[in-house]
TrEMBL record:
This is Bacterial bifunctional deaminase-reductase C-terminal domain-containing protein. InterPro entries: DHFR-like_dom_sf, RibDG_C, Riboflavin_Biosynth_HTPR. Gene3D superfamilies: Dihydrofolate Reductase, subunit A. It comes from the Bacteria. GO terms for molecular function: 5-amino-6-(5-phosphoribosylamino)uracil reductase activity. Residues 2-183 form the Bacterial bifunctional deaminase-reductase C-terminal domain. It comes from Dictyobacter aurantiacus. GO terms for biological process: riboflavin biosynthetic process.
Amino acid sequence: MRKIISTMWVTLDGFVAGPDDEMDWVGECFDEAMGKYEGEFFYAADTLLLGRVTYQSFAGSWPYVPDNPNVSEEEKEYARRLNAMQKIVFSRTLASADWNNTRLLREIDPAEIERLKSESGRDIIISGSPGLVQSLTNLGLIDEYQVLVYPLILGAGKPFLQNIKDRVRLKLVDSKTLPSGVMILYYQPK
């Protein structure tokens, strides 16, 4: 059975974005080790789940990266992989989802998610999309949380994992510290 794995960038004070949804701080710690982590995370999966905001951000840039002469060959390859993946975006307000291999769903159907997990293939991932992570957490559908704790205090912003209905007990299954000071924590539900 495939797993649903979430990766989320979080500041030390628990925010996933600044007060105006800014995430400029994420790039401050991007180095070779972070690139390796991102590549391994995406290459281990064949399906990407997205909320509307993350979808619009990704779809507004990644489809154009392979044709951009100003980006590295590594970034182009990463973009090609991302563009080829099956993508499912959950949104009640998005008019359409035209990015290659994307399916638009208006609501989360737990039975449909379980069916997706039971299909053959690689893991299913969520990159960002904190609202989607919240909803899937409340439904008990996430198999692993990979939390990237950044050495930064924002003071205000969009909190990580808000409005969780029930306590979720987790076990730490791995951790890594990157040269940039980012700590990656790997948790699975108990």
